[in-house]
Design brief:
Two copies of one chain form a homodimer.
Chain A: E1 3-7, E2 14-18, E3 22-31, E4 34-39, E5 47-48, E6 51-53, H1 60-72, E7 82-87, E8 98-106, E9 119-123, H2 136-149
Parallel strand pairs in A: 3-8
Antiparallel strand pairs in A: 1-2, 3-4, 3-6, 4-5, 4-9, 7-8
Chain lengths: ~150, ~150
Amino acid sequence: MPFDFLACPACGAQVKQYKNPLPTVDVIVELPEGIVLIERKNEPFGWAIPGGFVDYGESLEHAAVREIQEEISVQLEEKDLRLLGCYSDPARDKRSHNISTVYVAKASGTPKAGDDAAAFAIFPIDALPEPLCFDHARILSDYRSKKKAGTI
Amino acid sequence: MPFDFLACPACGAQVKQYKNPLPTVDVIVELPEGIVLIERKNEPFGWAIPGGFVDYGESLEHAAVREIQEEISVQLEEKDLRLLGCYSDPARDKRSHNISTVYVAKASGTPKAGDDAAAFAIFPIDALPEPLCFDHARILSDYRSKKKAGTI
């Protein structure tokens, strides 16, 4: 169903709006001790790779750097982002059809709670917490496979 | 500017709509003689990698297979799509902020004009036509580099 409806603020009539999938980015931030995951404050509850929506007029790389700064106060460089993959199953997020482009980036320094932050923690890739939200278990499984193969 | 406005069909008032970048896919279709490019019938004129918009509720891979069927009547398999990269510079398409996820896929058979088709032709990767639309010269340069390095 590629349409939904907005209410006209003047007369209340329904106004048809074309719907597209929503671009998002997630970033697997690599620290010497492991990767950073966020504990979500809202549904779906559980652990998630930090990330968020891409703004209109903003590149994927810009969104990735901005979201990581906002969520865990870690400054990344666009040039250091490595593309892991794109995840677009319409069922991957029950809230809306969100397409995630997932990057991996090495970071230094110590994360701290940013403006948007819930709790975060650092996990070795072979000792991840449960539950993982959305399709993040699959994404992290792909990450682990590529990491072990030396291809990311 | 993350908003634009729709006109209410009942009273003509302006209705604010949140804008997101629009997900698209492009596919570099590899045939024994070269890759398939489309000659665009509308502005911007020139040669382009076949592709199009991703529908709400449709995965990137599904959109890639569907667009190639519609544009050049070539049947691809989702499992044969290899991810080349994601191109999201807001200036890459003057019409709107379109984010392209670009795949590469080997194909057999003979393309023919599909429902949406303009002219198409097959080009060896070292003898591409001009002008190439959007940022497709950059995408094809990345493709050629990765092809020569054996990484795609």
